[in-house]
């Protein structure tokens, strides 16, 4: 599973860090570019919703095994075309399949954590961060040596696709029907459909809403760092152009470090304490960035942001699995949509506030949203105190 998270992190980083090169290759105007960038998370949300229904008929591991190579090939297609419609088609495929990939990957991670009986989700997301660092580093090499996108992407895709397919042989849910006959498999498939329908019905959006908000707030914070850290350091804190590229790399490294040790914190202190500490640390990080007198203090703030934000998303997926133990696939698919909601809101929100007001004040908005997470920290308890209106217990569906 960790290999799949790593591959996904690398592929996504190779796309987003080479957007300027894609823009130049296809001659896309600055006015049209935001439409292409917005289409990917919107379609990813559609893919996540579709995965909720798809896993009623096939295992999440099989979904992941199918879509991960398609995502990689879509990246290569995006970098290899010659006309705008080819880029649009490649990004559409990328968006739809990356939503299915994110959903199925986290479904497997949640189910595996439940099987282990201890926190391991932060480790999986740490592998994603490591993949992101590797992908961003390779993208830097490509930009430094002025490599054409097909030359950069082709050997990587040729390597990563077989690696992901080989790793998928060890997905846990592949063992469920290893010795079943075709007839028995058909019968079980029909019964799984009925159970899956029950699972979807068991997911109350009212009970899931606090986790959805935490997911959205975390990605608003993350997209703020991804899209505005370089501009903020250069334009507001008056750093050099070279130094302005450092905060995002520092953020990614501290995200990896936080996720590498975060599971130990969850096992020692509990998910609620870790989420509260992470939200508080991220809030302090945004405050330091907003008040920084110079670039080095600003980078200190971005460092705190990486250490704080990194725990929120993995623990939110894990909490959804605990809240709906008999319907975790449906809960994860729905929760995953708010990943893209936060991504879509975060960058335009900070940009609009920065342009209309100032960028220091704009940083206080994601700070406030992240701090709101503290209010919802009780939703991360190992055994939910209540369900829906605070009086029901979550209904557990027997999955055999």
Tags for this entry?
400 residues, mainly alpha, 16 helices, 77% helix
**Helix amount:** over 70%
Q: Which sequence of SSEs, written as H and E, runs from N to C?
A: HHHHHHHHHHHHHHHH
Overall SS class: mainly alpha
What is the number of helical segments per DSSP (H or I, 4+ residues)? 16
> How does the overall form come out from the CA principal axes?
globular
Largest sheet: none
- The termini sit apart by 23 Å
- Percent strand: under 5%
Low-pLDDT residue intervals, each spanning 5 or more residues: 174-201, 384-400
Q: What do you see in this structure?
A:
It is a multi-pass membrane protein. Keywords: Membrane, Transmembrane, Transmembrane helix. It is found in: Membrane. With 400 residues, the chain is an all-alpha fold. The chain contains 16 helices and no strands. The chain has helices at 2-16, 19-26, 33-54, 60-80, 84-116, 121-144, 149-167, 182-202, 205-236, 246-269, 271-291, 295-309, 312-323, 328-356, 359-362, 364-372. The longest helix is centred in the N-terminal third of the chain and has 33 residues, at 84-116. The model is unreliable at 174-201 and 384-400 (pLDDT under 50).
């Amino acid at each position: 599973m960790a290999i799949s998270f790593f591959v996904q992190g690398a592929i996504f980083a190779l796309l987003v860090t080479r957007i300027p090169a894609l823009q130049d290759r296809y001659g896309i105007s600055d006015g049209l570019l935001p439409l292409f960038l917005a289409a990917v998370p919107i379609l990813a949300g559609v893919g996540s919703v579709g995965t909720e229904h798809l896993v009623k008929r096939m295992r999440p591991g099989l979904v992941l095994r199918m879509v991960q190579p398609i995502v990689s090939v879509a990246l290569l297609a995006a970098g290899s075309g010659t006309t705008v419609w080819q880029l649009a088609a490649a990004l559409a495929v990328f968006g739809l399949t990356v939503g299915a990939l994110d959903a199925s990957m986290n479904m497997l991670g949640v189910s595996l954590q439940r099987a282990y009986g201890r926190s391991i989700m932060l480790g999986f997301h740490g592998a994603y961060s490591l993949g992101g660092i590797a992908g961003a580093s390779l993208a830097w090499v490509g930009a430094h040596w002025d490599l054409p996108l097909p030359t950069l992407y082709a050997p990587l895709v040729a390597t990563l696709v077989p690696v992901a397919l080989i790793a998928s042989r060890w997905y846990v849910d592949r063992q469920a029907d290893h010795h079943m006959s075709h007839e028995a498999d058909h019968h079980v498939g029909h019964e799984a459909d009925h159970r899956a329908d029950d699972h979807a019905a068991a997911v109350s959006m009212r009970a899931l809403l606090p986790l959805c908000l935490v997911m959205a707030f975390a990605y608003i914070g993350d997209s703020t760092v991804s899209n505005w850290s370089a501009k903020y350091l250069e334009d507001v804190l008056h750093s050099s152009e070279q130094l302005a590229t450092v905060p995002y790399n520092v953020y990614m490294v501290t995200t990896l470090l936080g996720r590498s040790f975060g599971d130990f914190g969850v096992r020692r202190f509990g998910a609620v304490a870790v989420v509260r500490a992470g939200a508080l640390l991220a809030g302090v990080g945004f405050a330091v960035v907003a008040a920084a007198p110079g670039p080095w203090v600003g980078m200190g703030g971005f460092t705190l942001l990486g250490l704080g934000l990194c725990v929120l998303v993995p623990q939110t997926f894990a909490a959804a699995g605990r809240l709906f133990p008999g319907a975790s696939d449906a809960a994860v698919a729905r929760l995953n949509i708010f990943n893209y909601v936060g991504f879509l809101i975060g960058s335009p929100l900070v940009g609009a506030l920065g342009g209309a007001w100032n960028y220091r004040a704009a940083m206080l908005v994601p700070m406030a949203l992240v701090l709101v997470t503290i209010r919802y920290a009780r939703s991360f308890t190992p055994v939910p105190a209540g369900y829906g209106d605070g009086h029901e217990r979550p209904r557990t569906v027997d999955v055999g």
